């Protein structure tokens, strides 16, 4: 696993490689870390497996003899939660926002199955769904191990239960999913207006360094790059909708220069997810992917059924096969389970001019 780097006095981060989860990186793609107080250690996020969580514990012991006294899970995502079992086995309390705890309970068994398929049973040995045993319902200040921490909740952002952890002594923020560096955000359950408002709230804080969900630590206005991306994305989709342009249209997102500026914010793994869309042309054949979810009540009270993920157009059935056989198509197919955690149905049908 990556060695911890000192971000500030008493604050350490493990920086993942920010790629898609794969056997070659053992699932070590996301960032997590720990804060050393006078009497104990707070861990922020736990990685993608029991093995990773255990390696974290060993790495922390090499830095300090103090015990880990609390784990904070910033949000429900497979790259951040499955190391928690290693800490639970050592009696360490695990804290999250109450909505994140509910999502972990409802959804993470599917995430775990998908990780087992990707990384294998040996890599995921001992990993299990570990529901937090402590929760908060909003922004809270705690004192753990002799260190004052603010647990910041700005409402629905990437999920309903996103937290960021601010070490008040050093001004270091573990942002959770609110901030990433050089990686396009996951857009599954997001609330873009809430996300933008949360980033503006972060701008108003006296922050020294941000440890994002993915990518190297960030400083100053670099913490706002995700906000710039979200604004551009929202504006591009609205323009396309208003102009009647399909999202596979050549200029759906505006000028080539603008598209390139957006692509500069994307990581290669996420670009692979969208490459299959670009392979489609103006055609009479279409592929629709739906995320099939069991009907259940979310913490908001809403009921969710099937969700349309993408509508892909191709010139012919042969064009579909060609696209799926490309490296991008194969990686997209392999990645479906990571972002459509409840399963996927692929529907193929012909269209004809009216």
How does this model look, in words?
The structure is a single chain. This protein has 354 residues and is of the alpha/beta class. It has ten helices and 15 strands. The strands form three sheets. Strands 1-2-3-4-5-6-7 form a seven-stranded mixed beta sheet. Strands 8-9-10-11-12 form a five-stranded mixed beta sheet, with no helix packed on it. Helix 5 packs antiparallel against helix 6 and helix 8 crosses helix 10. The longest helix is centred in the first third of the chain and has 22 residues. The radius of gyration is 21 Å and the shape is globular. It starts with a strand and ends with a strand. About 16% of the residues have low confidence.
What's the layout of helices and strands?
Blueprint lengths: L4 E4 L2 E4 L17 E5 L4 E4 L5 H14 L4 E5 L5 H4 L2 H5 L5 E4 H22 L14 E3 L3 E5 L2 E6 L11 E4 L4 E5 L15 H12 L5 E4 L12 H19 L12 H8 L4 H11 L6 E7 L15 E8 L2 H9 L1 H13 L4 E7 L4
Parallel strand pairs: 4-5, 5-6, 6-7, 11-12
Antiparallel strand pairs: 1-2, 2-3, 3-4, 8-9, 9-10, 10-11, 13-14, 13-15
Helix pairs in contact: 5-6, 8-10
């Amino acid at each position: 696993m990556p060695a911890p780097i000192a971000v500030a006095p008493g604050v350490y981060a493990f920086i993942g490689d920010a790629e898609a989860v794969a056997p070659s990186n053992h699932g070590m793609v996301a960032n997590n870390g720990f804060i050393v107080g006078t009497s104990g250690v707070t861990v922020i996020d736990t990685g993608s497996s029991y093995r990773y969580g255990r390696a974290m514990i060993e790495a922390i012991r090499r830095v300090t003899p103090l015990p880990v006294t609390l784990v904070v899970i910033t949000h429900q995502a497979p790259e951040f939660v499955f190391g928690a079992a290693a800490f639970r086995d050592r009696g360490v309390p695990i804290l999250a926002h109450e909505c994140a705890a509910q999502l972990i309970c409802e959804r993470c068994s599917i995430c775990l199955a998908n990780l087992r398929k990707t990384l294998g049973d040996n890599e995921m040995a001992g990993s299990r769904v570990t529901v937090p045993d402590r929760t908060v319902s909003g922004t809270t200040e705690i004192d753990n191990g002799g260190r004052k921490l603010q647990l910041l909740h700005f409402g629905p952002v990437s999920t309903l239960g996103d937290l960021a952890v601010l070490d008040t002594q050093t001004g270091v923020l573990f942002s959770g999913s609110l901030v990433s560096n050089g990686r396009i955000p996951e857009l599954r359950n997001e609330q873009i207006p809430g996300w933008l408002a949360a980033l503006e709230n972060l701008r108003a804080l006296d922050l020294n360094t941000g440890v994002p969900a993915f990518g190297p630590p960030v400083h100053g206005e670099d913490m706002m790059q995700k906000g710039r991306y979200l604004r551009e994305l929202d504006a591009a989709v609205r323009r396309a909708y208003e102009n009647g342009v399909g999202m596979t249209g050549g200029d759906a997102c505006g000028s080539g220069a603008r598209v390139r500026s957006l692509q500069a914010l994307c990581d290669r793994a996420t670009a692979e997810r969208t490459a299959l869309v670009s392979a489609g042309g103006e055609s009479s054949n279409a592929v629709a992917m739906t995320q099939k979810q069991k009907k259940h009540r979310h913490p908001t009270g809403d009921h969710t059924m099937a969700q349309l993920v993408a509508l892909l157009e191709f010139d012919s059935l042969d064009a579909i096969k060609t696209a799926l056989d490309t490296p991008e198509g194969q990686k997209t197919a392999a990645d479906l389970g990571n972002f459509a955690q409840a399963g996927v149905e692929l529907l193929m049908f012909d269209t004809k001019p009216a």
